[in-house]
Fold this protein.
Amino acid sequence: MNEINEESVSFHDYIDIIYRKKWLIVMVFVSVFLTTLYFVHREPQRYHSQATIYLEYAGNIVTPAFVSLGTGGGKPSTLRPLEFYLGIFDSRSFRNQIHRELVSYATRLGLTESEARGRATEALKTLEIKARPHKGYYSISVQASSPDLAFAADSIAIRLFAERCRQVSQQENNAMVVFMASQLDSARRNLLRAEDALQDFNRRHNLVRLETEEGAQSTPIEYSRLTTSYYNAREERQAAEATLQAMRQTVALLEQTYDSLALDPVRRARPAEEWADVQERLRKAVTELQIKEYQEKSLERQLREYELAHPELPTISLNLARLTRERDLYQRLQSILMERREELRMESSSESGGVKIIDPPTSGSPVPSRARVSLIVGVVVGLVFGVGVAFFWEFMDSNVKSTTDLARILDVSTIAAIPSIGASRKKKSNGTRRRHSRASLITEGSLKDPVAEAYRSLRTTLMYSAGDHRLKTLVVSSAGQAEGKSVTTANLGITCAQMGQRTVIIDGDLRRPVQHMNFGLERDGGMSEYLLRDLELADVAKPSGVDNLDIITAGITPPNPAPLIGSKVFAERLAELHENYELVLIDSPPIIAVTDAVLLGRVSDGVLMVVRCAATPRAAVKHAFSILDNAKVNVLGAVLNDVDVSRHYGGYYYYNYYYHYYYGGYYGADSDKREKAEKTSS
């Protein structure tokens, strides 16, 4: 069998799947919608509280308390990055503290310990901080199961947040105060050492008496300039050293501060850009110190060269000037450190943490119901999920469901699609019971019956598919059991006989025969006796009750029917049938179950394959056709049987509709009048 390229699935196929699975989609949709409705109905009323705060933060300044030391002192910047505040807000310790106080408040309201913990946990999950339209303004909001609990949770969060920011800022300032105290102690020791050295020098050289008796000695202008520049450079170098030490201490404090906040990975305590800015400031301080050291050494070298070039300068005056400059330097440094220490103490006592409360928490107001949105989402999700389940079900279903499926897996044409007989006969019964043996036959059907018309279309297609070669013997088979091959054989024989064609139906399924029940005949005296005994054709050919149609039943069941079917006697009997009938229809066993169908197909003009809609697996159809193909049996085509037109949106539905519209209109009112007259006469 040749390889078949599968056709692409069209939009019409998707619509057909949705139409056939409409009740499954409705069931899934109703389940999802009712579940959504249940949870919406069960959702308790929530209450909302909100407060507005202002955060004093700087986007590019990350040093908590940067100290600018110099000749005139400096004022530190207490601005912090936004991550500082967000890190505190998201820290585990901050939220645990809120939870503890909220549980305590809820128990005072009369709740049990477990209820208080549960409601506090639910409220804490909704606690969030959001930016307002104006820069620096933020809102802190929370939701709870009661107005009092929502207001209390927001109030506790605002208070603890401001306290926590203030505590962290005070800790930083206190650390800087301790650092300034250590630097001040060092400056004091250096000043005492410089003053002692100056007093000792004056005492040893009796400079006070010398100055009173001889007066002040004059110094050259260039020497005085070099001396002043040298000590100024030395003073600047020491100030740069103190600034660098303060910067290093500040960086260390910054690392400790951010590491203690326990921020989540999204909001990092040290963003890359801001941390790079800190490192850049530290590098600049190091470079500034190197420049000051270079200037000091350069002036010191110039001063030494000048002194060597002028040996007449008084050595005592030179040493006295140096000691005096060193004392003055440490005096100014001590004054700067003392001033900065006092500033830090004042900032620590008045530190607000950079948090200002603009609007206090509002009393708990009801949260607007989201029932409508939830129901809309439930409707959308229900429809999408229902369609998804329908397509998944369709994907998992491996049965043949349409002529398109047959065309994708086989290289033969689909000759006809037979609607479900049960649906058609249900409307015709009018409350009267039919015998089971004839319930599936179309002998009593109306001319406008779509099932009868489908079989007539099958008869016409088979007639013209043979071309110039007249079709004499046709085997009707299927891949498995209960696919409608026997009913198809019987109804096809009836339509051919109604056209005036002399037809005989042979029940070739000698194992499980059905045709004798379809036509209400006796099983004995059939094909088995015809092959095993010397009987005439008239002895086994039984009238069916339909003009031009005879039935040869299966007869007794032989031990092994296959050799009997493949015998020379069967071929001789088949030739005798050809002499007496224009068309021989053979109802054969299933192809996959036994080899009888293959043997019958070898002695016939072709095999008609019957596939039951939505019941026969694709793999079984493929396997059956491969068996016939390997045996070189001519397959005339396939018939899709038992199509429920009410479950198909596509071609079958329109086939049923247009058949009633055109075919009924063609016969018109005359046929209706005839039917009414027949009912009246009866």
Notes: Residues 299 and 610 are 113 Å apart (CA to CA). The radius of gyration is 53 Å.
